[in-house]
Amino acid sequence: MVFNGLGHHLPGEDSGDAVIVLQVQDHPEFSRKGSHLFIERDISLTEALCGLKLVLKTLDGRSLLVENNPESIIRPSSIRIVESEGMPIPNPHSNRVTYGDLYVKFNVTFPTALDKDTCEKNQMPSSTSFADRDG
C-alpha cells in the first residue's frame, strides 16, 4: 500500500511516500479465496452414513455446529456450504457488513478391514438380481 505524501519530509522539499508491504500468513486449517473460507475435515464412514455433529472453531473463536442427519449421506469429497460464515465484505455505501461463505469439504475415511461379526450385524439388504428383474 502506498500513502502518497505521508513519508519523510525535509524542509523545502516534497514529502515522500509511505510504503507498507503486507505479507499474508497461511492459516493451518482455513484457506481463503476472496471473501470465502475453505476447510477440510476427515470423517469416518460411519459418520458419513449415519449422521454427524461436527464442531468447528471459527477464526473469531466461536464454535460452529455443522450437522448432517442420517437421511442425508455424505459422499467422499462432498462440500457443505455454511452461508455467511466467511470473511467480512465491507460495503462502502452502508454500515451493514455482509459475509462470504464457509465451504466444508468432507474426506471420508474407510476402514482397512472389517471382522465377520461386524459384517453380519450390519449387512445391507441385497439388491435385486438380474434374473428377478426380468421375470
Keywords:
135 residues; 4-stranded mixed beta sheet; mainly beta
Low-pLDDT runs: none
Instruction: Tell me the number of helical segments per DSSP (H or I, 4 or more residues long).
Output: 3
Could you tell me the radius of gyration in angstroms? 26 Å
End-to-end gap: 75 Å
- Secondary-structure content class: mainly beta
The coarse overall form would be elongated
Mean pLDDT: 87
**Topology, number of strands:** 10
- Share in helix: 10-25%
Strand order of the largest sheet: 3-4-10-7
Strand content: 25-35%
How do the SSEs run, as a string of H and E?
EEEEHEEEEEEHH
Give a quick account of the main beta sheet: strands, pairing sense, barrel closure.
Answer: 4 strands, mixed
Summarize the structure in words:
The protein is mainly β. The chain has three helices and ten strands, in the order ββββαββββββαα. It has helices at 45-50, 116-121, 130-134; strands at residues 2-3, 18-19, 31-33, 36-44, 52-57, 63-68, 79-82, 88-89, 98-99, 102-109.
Quick recap:
By secondary structure, the chain is mostly beta strands.
Topology:
Blueprint: E1 2-3, E2 18-19, E3 31-33, E4 36-44, H1 45-50, E5 52-57, E6 63-68, E7 79-82, E8 88-89, E9 98-99, E10 102-109, H2 116-121, H3 130-134
